[in-house]
Amino acid sequence: MRLETAEQSGTRQIRGETQRRCALTRAHRSKADLIRFVLGPDGDVVPDLKERLPGRGVWLTASHDTVAEAAKRKAFGRVLKMDAKAPESLPQQVDALLNDAALGALAMANKAGKVVFGNAKIEEALRGGRVIALVHAADAAEDGCRKLDGKARAATEGHGLPVMRAFNADELGLASGRTNVIHAALIQGGAAQKFLVAASRVERYRKGISAFADRHGSDTD
After folding, report:
1. Alpha-carbon distance 86 to 39, whole Å?
2. Is 90 exceeded by the pLDDT of residue 33?
3. Which domain does 55 fall in, by range?
4. Which of 86, 141, 175, 184 could make an SS bond with 45 (beta carbons 3.0 to 4.6 A apart)?
5. Which of 54, 73, 88 is the last residue in one of the domains?
6. Which residues contact 14 (CB under 8 A, 6 or more apart)?
7. Domain match, 104 and 200 both
8. Rounded mean pLDDT of 51-55?
């Protein structure tokens, strides 16, 4: 399989959206479904999640398996035509960065008053039509999740709401400054939307683009 940088020849416009080509799979995807990597001064491969670092970039599908395969195959060096050190731990490094970015966004949404906690307050927000997504701890009991999901379907006339389960109770608690955070709801607003985007990116990375799309009912290229 030939590898190439999307920055060189893999950019295209689809309905006004800039898409780039994954250097490993060669599939065109929106930038939201890709991660850019550059070489640091010492030749180490560095994830550039904010797409601001200087230098030629290598774009990969934002999934654990794709990053792992690229590191295993020494794809970065071949694409950039220079020595590139991509450790086996690179997929885990990317996961940690995405995770931290999402939890930081949750903290900001909480400070902005766009997150509510506790079943009673969540149900009240659902009845008021203000909720854009539910957050369940990864280690939450399934029965409690099903009950709130059912409340969400009822409040949205059967459509339901996006559900995030990427973070455990301890992580949610640290980000929100609370203890024993099992369930939360995101309230309409820019800060909540930013967390939803960041959390969705974590889930896509861990589950794979196709698996995430199947679960959430969206299409991917």
Report:
1. 9
2. yes
3. 6-88
4. 86
5. 88
6. 28
7. yes
8. 93
